[in-house]
User: What shape does this take?
Amino acid sequence: MSRKKDKLARPPGRGSVSRRDFLRGAGVAVSGGLIAGETTKARAAAGATTPILGPGKVPITLRINGKPQTLELEPRVTLLDALRNHLDLTGAKNVCDRGTCGACTVILDGDPVYACNVLAIEAQGRNIQTIESLTVGGKLHPVSAAFVEHDAQQCGFCTPGFVMAVKAFLDHHPNPTMESVEKGLGGNLCRCGTYVGIRKAALQAAKSVKGGLHNA
Amino acid sequence: MEAFEYARPTSKEEAVKLLAGTWGETEVLAGGTDLLSLMKDYASNPKRLVSLSGIAALKGISSQPDGDLRIGATATLQELIASPIVAKQYPALVEAAHGVRSPQIQSLGTVGGDLLQRPRCWYYRGGHGLLAQHDGKSLVPDGENQYHAILGNSGPAYFVNPSSFAPILIALGAKVRVHGPSGAREVELSKFFRTPSSESEREYDLKPNEILTEILVPAPGGAKMAVYEVREKEALDWPLAAAAVVLNTSGKTVKSARVVMGHVAPIPWPSPEAEAALAGKTISESVADEAGKAAVAKATPLSKNAYKVQLARVATKRAILAAAGGA
Ligand SMILES: Cc1cc2nc3c(=O)[nH]c(=O)nc-3n(C[C@H](O)[C@H](O)[C@H](O)COP(=O)(O)OP(=O)(O)OC[C@H]3O[C@@H](n4cnc5c(N)ncnc54)[C@H](O)[C@@H]3O)c2cc1C
Ligand code: FES
Ligand code: FES
Assistant: This one.
């Protein structure tokens, strides 16, 4: 029974994996112990050549908003936590952390994803776009501008995720209808109930984007 | 989530070597839309994750020379929706993928992961184990069982199979190919799912060091097909009851039918009773209704889920009518 508290506060590198127990179970060849906080070296399993990384920190390079950034992270760190806790990109919000609300939506290689559903280590080599990239030189992206104009937020906590979901949707559907917008934004929840404003904003943004009011 | 080791092999042979022979030691990571949540809830605490994202051989959707459709285990729901072959020949698969309304899940979630996603049973997700037992007795029959099984629920498992694709793929006669330490094997999807009898078993026929590599769907040969789901919410949720129907017809007469219900039992639940009620008939509202009734005739609802009997009946009826209607 695992009614455990979240263990993220634990010192890095000291997971509850008992290395010795695991070796017995899975036949893994390991050289050297694990020192808290130290970046772990890659190893390989018996008979396999694929490097095994972690559970301690490993170098991870992420291409975020066009810029490569290298971090030292444990394999268990999600893309959402890497953005928020390690790169100070706090636009994507952590609400459910279970892929059920959309507040953490970012765009990965052109498609919307929940950043809480992706491990940072798995996002390497891919183009990650966050809401921080939408404002260029203080000028709002047409999607963000349409949200302002249509009063498409109340508390605003779902807003960055919704803006990214709308952007990804419009990138793929430049000629939306009210019905297609409603379906296409099915991956985001707003507890304040601002859906009507958001849908209107999406339709207007589609027009502005076509009219050349484009940032990113 | 506990700390774990991570490996990203580039071949299925390597993937298999990296997996342990005991459940729970290692886990396979596809899109992660289910697995990461299980790990955050400590319902799964693997010591190593083996990612499939680097294995090109598991990707893609294509027609095989023999006419079968091959869906790579890591093809995403989004790729399935965008596939012209699937849209043309298997419209019900596209419908099933659209049922998972969130574009974010569609772009990450894989078809293999959909088939192998773990039950949504809140006792399981809350850390009470797959069979939700306390002192050898399941918490479900006297507990909060409103989303649990109405068929195949004589125990010890009461959860429902959560996959939107399993019922329609079974109705279409799909097989899955599995790769393990001693090579590849194929299993009829209709025989792949099973009701676990102990905590150490899983709800599907896979060994801990095997991976699902592809799904093979026979050419539909003019069969009519549809899925129908009843949901509580429009999105970000799983169906309460669903049905998949494939009809082989001659003119207006049904020669043979396949009817498989979802979300009603620990495994996708085929209904030979509904199939018999359709054989030789011309589909009408009343024929479909009779078949729906037959599909749930043996239902044994728990204390709080009798409403699901009616939902499953209606889902079956409507799937039959939708299939006959053309689509
Ligand atoms: C909010 C929400 C709503 C959803 N609604 C629905 C719905 O309506 N219908 C529905 O069917 N699904 C639904 N899902 C589930 C989602 O569709 C599936 O979770 C997704 O397709 C799973 O794919 P994945 O690649 O992300 O799986 P993962 O999370 O990567 O894996 C799921 C499980 O399968 C195992 N696995 C995956 N691939 C393989 C393989 N090739 N070989 C061996 N083991 C493997 C993993 O080890 C894990 O145990 C929903 C999910 C969320 C979060
Ligand atoms: S925080 Fe990621 S979907 Fe809710
Ligand atoms: S504005 Fe408050 S949650 Fe959407």
